[in-house]
Amino acid sequence: MDSIVQFENVGLRYGTGPEALSDLSFTLFSGQFYFLTGPSGAGKSSLLRLLYLAQRPSRGMIRLFDSDLVTLSRDRMPGFRRRIGVVFQDFRLVPHLSAFDNIALPLRIAGMRDADLATPVREILDWVGLSARGDALPATLSGGEQQRVAIARAVITRPDILVADEPTGNVDPEMAVKLLRLFEALNRMGTTIIVATHDIHLMTRIKRAQMMRLEGGRLFDPTGALRYPPKPSDLRGWEEDKG
Ligand SMILES: Nc1ncnc2c1ncn2[C@@H]1O[C@H](COP(=O)(O)OP(=O)(O)OP(=O)(O)O)[C@@H](O)[C@H]1O
Q1: How does it assemble (predicted)?
Q2: From atom 1 of ligand 1, which residue's Cα is the shortest distance away?
Q3: Ligand 1, closest atom to CA 14?
């Protein structure tokens, strides 16, 4: 199995505050499905921001796609970013653009002509079950529909890694499972998936997913080897994460 992300003794400090992340050492392997869990404030979003290159670590080494991020030249960053799709809990769609145009945005930014992007955007709208809603503005879509647009936008460039930060926090449980199925389908096509979530029931839905748990900025299971079904002792403390 090829490693796609490697952290070695990574720490992250915001300003002069205490470390939000400390001594993170782990490897993520290509094509795997990972859940990142932990109580509020444990550092999940911070870890994801390091993964999708919105943040640089304060110390330690991060290797991504076999390159050392600390020494990566600035002009190679955009190319790396394009290989990572990101989905947020609050969707972050552009309000004045239709579903179609939100999804087309990464392709337009990459310089694709309108004539060339119509087919892939239509295909992915169909894949997320929204082929009839391409012209709709985000405000006229339900939460689940908006999140499906956000997922489509994140994967339209066929990223190697999909990072999702509480992607099901604003949809009902039934829709949460449907969204998870989209992630699972992508994973089957080879995309490495990392989903931060508090939702323990969601995690039980992906049997082969691996668990990473943060507590106080440190990895609770540094090997990332926890798998479902977990031992009862592994579950201790997880229930209070909900909500
Ligand atoms: N931009 C920032 N500036 C200063 N401190 C920050 C910033 N972002 C996060 N922190 C701090 O870093 C720590 C980890 O926050 P983070 O948002 O990563 O946790 P989380 O596990 O994602 O929490 P939640 O589940 O509530 O979203 C917290 O103590 C938080 O206050």
Answers
A1: Homodimer. Forms a membrane-associated complex with FtsX.
A2: 14
A3: 4
